[in-house]
Amino acid sequence: MAKKIIIPALVLLLTLTGCSSEKFLKEGDYLLTSAKVTSDDKSADLSPYRDMVKQSTNSKWFNLLNVPLGIYCLSGTDSTKGINRFFQRLGEAPVTYQPQKAQATAIQMTGTAINLGYLQAYTDTHVSTHQHKARINYHIHPGPLYKIRSIDYRVDDAEIDSLIQQNRKQSLLSPGMPCNAHTLDAERDRIINLLYQNGYYKVLKKYIYYDVDSTAGPNNLDLTLNFCGKSIAEDSTLVDYNRYWIGNITVNVKGYEDTDPPLRDSIKYRGIWIRYFGSSIIRPNVIYSQLEIQRGSFYNQESVRRTYDNLSRLQLLHNSSIHFTDNGNGILNTEITLNTNKLNQISAELEGTNTSGDLGMASSVSFTHRNLFHGSETWSTKAKAAFEAIRGLEGYSDQNFFEFSLETKVAFPRIIIPFLPERKRITLHGNSEISLQYTTQQRPEFHRRVLTALWSYKWNGKRNKHQHKLDAIGLNYVYMPWISKTFREDYLDNNNDRFAIVKYSYENLFILNTAYNFIYNSSDKSRHSISPQKSYQIHYGIESAGNSLYLLSKALNIKKDSENRYNLFNVAFAQYLKIDADYACSIPLNKNNTLAMRGAVGLVLPYGNNTIVPYEKRYFAGGANSVRGWSVRELGPGSFKGEDGKIDFINHTGNLKLLFNLELRSYLIWKLSGALFVDAGNIWTTRNYAAQPGGQFQLDTFYKQIAASYGCGFRFNFDYFILRFDMAMKAISPYYNSEKEHYPFLSPRLKRDFTFHFAVGLPF
Known about the structure:
This protein has 764 residues and is an alpha+beta fold.
């Protein structure tokens, strides 16, 4: 079966890549097959120059297969025929060598080298042709690197000169540095931003320019930074070096889509005027707490940006705008307009489900109110019902699964800390959230009730690159009101050691935890970047549960139960420490191909009141976002291999995780992209549990238990969401029953080793 699928696909790809494009070439045209960039400097980073090439060769799938051109070549030259137009739209037209674009590319490369400090640089263009094909090589001769020997300043305003000198430590310029035009321009931006943050509302970047003296010696330059707006202006009286103060602040609050609403109310609060138009009202103290612009202070552009950021977090607001008016006396009057959103929203969803072949459906309805206490507090309530027909269960009177859940939460657009004085509270910017959820599950084997409550905080760091979340108090209560006789006799009352973890997973349980999560996102691009660079994300989290309850129980000398555990209201509580770290990055190879990778590690340690981590907090391997050669909850821990598919999804869990993913992502056609991937990893237990033989982590054997898989996938990018189809094959298995089973890639079998995944979104 594998041969029937793979071999024809390879033949088709080879056929497409071998299609001739000569029928589309005119007399004197050459198909561009190679565009290389080389340099005299063997250590130079050529990636910025490669991105300047104005004529790249035809795109290739996964940087190897010239399929888009092959699809185009399936068409004929008669564009009036529909089939020809179809293949031409689907594929990519031949890229022919154009001397004008090659010359423009060489000029830009030379200019870039000069901007980097190679002032004598030049670029040669070498073109070779053979049988309607052309190869081009851009060879850069950078020459010597010029460096700055000394730096001088000339400023025609004493106060500005003093401010610049006071902040010289933050300067991007230093003696001995290369004469890099991008760094010089960044220093101009830094100085202008410094002035904007200290009241200089009307200074312009063009006031800053450089004088360069090339007589300083071989490959050395003397640099003078000039801040002389009055010297270059046609009329020096138009150059404004005044420092501006913030005067009157007026806030206009308008209703959603109101074109000309009447004024309903006007209030003066802490020195600012707040005028309400229409019927939507937000409390004055909430508006005031979001304003970084303060009356009587110097104009500060950073305060304006932070005010915009703060206002954008208010769910009640649709948009906001800030305008300054110069009253002629160095005073800026500020007018802020807030347009409110719709107060209420109702939405409904209907979805189909498929759990291991068991079909079902779910529906939900939610209600949102965006101004609960007239402070842009968002109250949302969601009710969800689900049904699933379960097949293959024997000995149970019912064969259906029902679930109903009700969730309600209130999100506050500020950090709420009890007993914190208001003057300190208004300086903290972020969100607070209180949520409560109740879920009831009716399965043929058991009934489960879950109550969850959470009090959490969210806030962003500088430039919104850092994201923080603190779950101050989290509560999770699991109650099992009914367990069927068949399920109890088969698993819970069974003395077989392999059911020990199963028993623990179907007990009443209480979790009281605190957690902190940090995420850093970086596009790794600056405004002076001349080529796309890698982007990356770092995430780490720490969670702790049960410590306060354990200390309280011990202090009160509460008796332990038969399992040597303290109980709260006759329910054992969990105690553990969980640490997670995750790193993912994306490296663009060219405009159509990207290399993406992810590494993750996690550890959950049970201690104190329990020896087993609660099921909800354990790790699992396999599935669409893990080692894709295995289905979800099918791999691990270690070399453990389950014997009962009905219940082993619980035993296929662990409290230590190692994971690595590598993907080559390539744009194919239309909205379709492809990926070639390799996954590796597994989960383990840190204790030796009889129910999971071979699952304990050992330094001398764990590397032999790392599973690996390989495969390919297709992704349909519909802008708002991505549909993903991944097909994976097992490569290395942690099982040792035979060499064929341990190394499936040596003797692949589709039925045994193939796994298909359907998911929404990218795996990382």
